[in-house]
Write a structure and sequence with these properties.
The chain is α/β, with parallel strands linked by helices and about 350 residues long. It contains twelve helices and 13 strands. It starts with 12 loop residues before the first helix and ends with a helix.
Length: about 350
């Protein structure tokens, strides 16, 4: 009998070596309380208005573009809508980075998809760890800037929750002038809208801002995100996007989420989540095995435990799924907890206390 041919030998080398993004869904678990993906804890209600599924959708549905532009305070030609912000992260690499020649720069600890997307396209990664306060190390960035075409900065940053100091972003933009795209990932900006850098688009032709409906808009399952930039950049991204990135139902619901009423509902969710965040953070600070609760401007908090493995495992067994951040740069002992309902916050606190009594 012939030995079966190993089909993986046909794959590109970088794909064979690639570790796919460890998404919360992929990691599994048998939970009843899901606090590992920064989702909103309950489902918003929508009905489908658009039923002519016999037709291809618009590539850039005009209602979605116009409403998002009005919401974000930019012109429609400065907006690209994509299959989640994740697709926009990838489109930037596709449009701007030559494999084997250009590099992508990012500053861990941060969102994992910058690395995964660069790896998928065989584009070099320039990894410049953040400083102890999680601000970008601008000097180190400057010294490692050769061939860098694209920089991702996440603000507020996932998983640390802090806003990146704007004056440092200005320094990075100055370094990148005429050389590289600076993409600011504002996936959580609705939780701190005053920190948005959208107004800077007027000054910087190489600035891109990434947004999503997955977090404050409570629509992670919809898969809808945005890139905001000056129109020459948007035109380039439109060259490499799929012909029909959004299905008709996605465009339909995204347009509804962006009505005045939809935006008002989003703001109410933000108020509720911020209230629960304070509640959970205060309760955690009183627990003896909590070393630090980091300040957050988002819908999650990063918490450093004296016994993070035990907390993670014990809550997992109690059906409460958190995100283990211990393998991220500089985050030993840290778990990330998404802010859920008030009841879910209470279950986290109770479960951590139960673990303690079980261990005494
Ligand atoms: C959740 C998240 C995204 C991805 O958003 P989608 O629109 O769901 O693809 C991008 N960046 C950061 C920092 C995120 O946390």
């Amino acid at each position: 009998m012939n030995t079966p041919f190993d089909i993986t030998l046909l794959a590109r080398k970088n794909v064979r070596q690639l570790t796919p993004y460890q998404s919360a869904r992929r990691l599994g678990g048998n939970g009843s309380v899901w606090l590992n993906a920064n989702e909103y804890p309950t489902a918003p209600d929508f009905t489908f208005n658009e039923k002519n599924l016999n037709r291809y959708p618009e590539c850039q549905p005009v209602n979605v573009i116009n409403r998002y532009a009005a919401y974000a305070g930019v012109q429609p030609e400065q907006v690209l809508v994509s299959r989640g912000a994740d697709e926009a992260i990838e489109l930037l690499i596709r449009a701007f980075c030559e494999p084997g020649k250009d590099a992508v720069l990012y500053c861990p600890p941060t969102y994992g998809m910058y690395s995964v997307s660069a790896e998928t396209f065989g584009v070099e990664q320039r990894v410049v760890p953040a400083l102890a306060d999680w601000e970008p190390d601008v000097k180190a960035i400057a010294s490692q800037f050769d061939n860098v075409k694209l920089i991702y900065l996440c603000s507020p940053n996932n998983p640390t929750g802090n806003i990146v100091e704007p004056s440092l972003i200005r320094e990075v933009l100055a370094l990148a002038k005429g050389k590289a795209i600076v993409a600011i990932d504002e996936a959580y900006i609705e939780f701190c809208p005053q920190a948005s850098l959208v107004a800077w688009l007027k000054e910087y032709p190489n600035l891109v801002i990434l947004r999503t409906l997955s977090k404050a808009f409570a629509l992670a399952g919809l898969r809808c995100g945005f890139a905001l930039a000056n129109s020459p950049v948007i035109e380039l991204l439109l060259k490499v996007i799929a012909p029909y990135p959004l299905s008709t139902p996605v465009a339909d619901i995204a347009a509804q989420a962006l009505t005045d009423q939809g935006i008002e509902a989003m703001k109410q969710r933000v108020t509720e989540i911020v209230r629960n965040r304070t509640y959970l953070a205060d309760a955690l600070k009183n627990l003896p095995n909590v070393e630090q609760v980091y300040c957050s401007e988002t819908n999650y908090i990063l918490v450093k435990f004296t016994d993070a493995d035990c907390v993670f495992r014990s809550l997992w067994e109690q059906g409460i799924i958190l995100r283990d951040q211990q393998r991220q740069y500089g985050l030993a002992g840290c778990l990330r907890i998404s802010i859920g309902t008030r009841q879910e916050c209470d279950s986290v606190i109770t479960a951590i206390k139960n673990r303690q009594t079980a261990n005494v």
